[in-house]
Prior knowledge:
Layout: H1 3-30, H2 60-71
Amino acid sequence: MNNFEVFLYFVCFAAIGGAAFAMMWANIMSLDMKPQPPTKPKHPEAPEAGEEVMYVDLSRERLEDLYKQDKD
């Protein structure tokens, strides 16, 4: 190989290396690095803030009291 071919090889090598670096840099810069909170759709029957919710107390003591009342 003569000197011109070696020079041409290194010029092409540098061009490909520079293009690869530029592509990686552009891809990294296009990412949005701010953490986004996950967006889950709100259930249609979910209560609004401050709204009272009806519930059933299923604690063990409450269930035992109900069972005793039913026996009597």
